[in-house]
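Budget justification, computational time. The allocation requested in the original proposal was used primarily to generate structure tokens for proteins on the priority list. As evidence of use, we reproduce two of the resulting records. The first is shown immediately below.
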Amino acid sequence: TLGGGRVEKKRPDEPGDHALGRSRGGWGSKLHLVSDGAGVPLAACVTAGQAHESTQFERLMQEVRPPRRERWPQKAAGDKGYSYPRVRRWLARRGVDAVIPQRSDQAMRDGDLGLDRRTYRRRSAVERCVGWLKECRRVGTRCDKLAGSFMAFVRLAFIQRYLRLLDPSDRT
């Protein structure tokens, strides 16, 4: 209860920690993002700063699953944070080639011919998308306490991006 006898109502979609936690950079959140090859954002979620990238992989990929008659993309690129057998198996079950460099603590798998560097270089589109999203002041500074409110502004930024893509003559 709050002072005055009122009962605080919990939001069912709000994490208990409000997606705030400790990380190397201090107190904060981590925004997990999926984009297409052109850097168009497709899905996002927020977790506490100490959450690992690979923990949100399946959740985000399920949000961007292809429509019924379409297939998953041929390749999916990620950084070393996604170099886990669970992630590679998930992609393999869907017929998607994992373009993920192996971490230094992982032994090179037999028959692994190495990383498709040409495809991996295209991963910069995701990094540019993250950079663009951080330029949106409300998202970049995480002004909101509630994770649900923060994600609402992330989605609003996505909509703004989609509208700009639909009308390339609008440069404002």
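The second record produced under the same allocation is shown here.
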Amino acid sequence: KLGTAGAVVWGSPSGTPVTIFTDFHCGYCRALVNELERMNVRVIERPISTLGSRDIANRVYCARDKARAVKAAYAGEPLPAAACDTSGLDANEAFARTNNFTGTPVIVRSDGEVLEGYRSRDILEPWLRGARR
């Protein structure tokens, strides 16, 4: 139900789509991203600020190279300030509240099935294959 605004897309363009709601201060989110980077997936990352990371989310979302900015954010590297329309991030947070996503990460499969919390690759791969078409 969310549009493209507020999404940071990275990974394999032809990979299995997976949406993740994350916070750049979340260690489990960083671990999940590391797992997903090793998989054949197209990640639609939707930053939300559950741990006070909205400034970082704004900087990532407004970066010219968003995928690179995501890596830098999880690595704790400084990100330059940039200005853009961040109303998509507001929409991510409103969606998360409406759907009672109170923590991160939240993993959403293409058919709408949800997993809350970190999952390893050996769990994610079969779960993603199980999507109803």
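A brief technical remark on that second record: DSSP finds five helices and five strands in the chain.
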